[in-house]
Amino acid sequence: MWKTILRRFLIMIPELIILSMLVFLLAKAMPGDPFLGSINPKSSPQQIHHLMQANGLYDPWYQQYWNWVVHLFHGDLGMSYEYKEPVVGLIQQRGLNTLWLALFTMIMTYMIALPLGVYAGKHEGKWQDNLVRVYTYVTMAIPFFVVLVLGIWIFGYLFNLFPTAGSISPTATGFGTVISRLTHIILPGLLGALFGTVNIVQYLRSEVIDAKHSAYVKTAKSKGIPMKDIYRHHIFRNSLLPIAAFSGYSITGLLAGSIFTEMVFSYPGMGLLFLNAVNYRDYTVITALVLLYGFLNLLGTLISDVVLAVIDPRIRVE
């Protein structure tokens, strides 16, 4: 198991190198430059030319790539052209905000989806099952940004229960910062969780129904094992396998940030940072974030394999 994990990490190295080259070249191929109009709309061509030259943007692409890789290994991802801050500091700050939101969203997603999926599968064909299926169909039919806007209008403006922008109150101090951060992530986290439960509920419902009619459940019933124990030790455990296969991607996907959620709520996270970087041609931020997203994607594959092996001891990556 540990040998496989180490081998997967070693395989990730050439994949990340190829990804970094592609990302760097595609970022450089974007039209425009990071200085035109971002400093002063009336900047002269001579000023723009001087800034481009000072930042090495006239050097050959391979020279720029090599300089970027050298600085990368020294923990320096460069300066953001738009924010005038080190990219490492920007990612740390925004990444922490996204981490809090991602953890809350993920916990709430599984807390809602797992009981609903098992409940629907347990009551197959009954009104309880139909009620859960109506919930999944309605959630799937409504676009995510509509859910976000409705949530802001109802819970943010109509009832004034939660803040609708930012990640923390500027006046919060001490323990109040924790409370403020929590109140800022409850609404976007719950809305994201409600939208993210659809696939998990449907997968789990189908797996529970299949498991109910399997041979090992019939054998357990014939031995007189109570149904609650059969659900706990047999049906639920085996039904989690397909969900566990995608768990790694779900975790790393949330860490990458949700552009829709962060844009609607003006939440300063990774998704909004990436969107702004594209808009302002902030090459250093774009290359760093896409490389990070690529690493998270590869890491998600590894996490999924490990989770599968933990849930089902029969599955071992040799």
Plain-language structure description:
By secondary structure, this protein is mainly alpha-helical. The protein has a domain at about 90-265: MetI-like fold (Orthogonal Bundle). The protein is about 75% helix and about 0% strand. It is built from 13 helices and no strands. The chain has helices spanning about 1-30, 45-55, 60-75, 85-120, 125-140, 145-160, 175-210, 215-220, 225-240, 240-255, 260-265, 270-280, 285-310. The N and C termini lie close together (about 5 Å). Belongs to the binding-protein-dependent transport system permease family. It is found in: Cell membrane. One of its GO terms (cellular component) is plasma membrane. InterPro entries: BPD_transp_1_N, MetI-like, MetI-like_sf. Its main location: membrane.
Query: Any idea of the CATH topology of the domain at 89-265?
Result: MetI-like fold
Share of β-strand residues:
under 5%
Secondary structure tally, helices: 13
User: What's the CATH class of the domain at 89-265, please?
Assistant: Mainly Alpha
> What gyration radius follows from the Cα positions, in whole Å?
24 Å
Assign the structural class, choosing from mainly alpha, mainly beta, alpha/beta, alpha+beta, or little secondary structure.
mainly alpha
Helices and strands, in N-to-C order?
Answer: HHHHHHHHHHHHH
CATH superfamily heading of the domain at 89-265 = MetI-like
Query: Ends: how far apart?
Result: 6 Å
Based on Cα principal axes, name the global outline.
globular
Named at the architecture level, the CATH assignment of the domain at 89-265 is Orthogonal Bundle
Helix content: over 70%
Regions with little confidence, pLDDT below 50 for 5+ residues: none
DSSP summary, beta strand count? 0
For the biggest sheet, the summary is: none
Family: Belongs to the binding-protein-dependent transport system permease family.
Pfam families: BPD_transp_1, BPD_transp_1_N
Transmembrane segments: 99-122, 134-162, 182-204, 240-265, 285-311
Subcellular location: Cell membrane
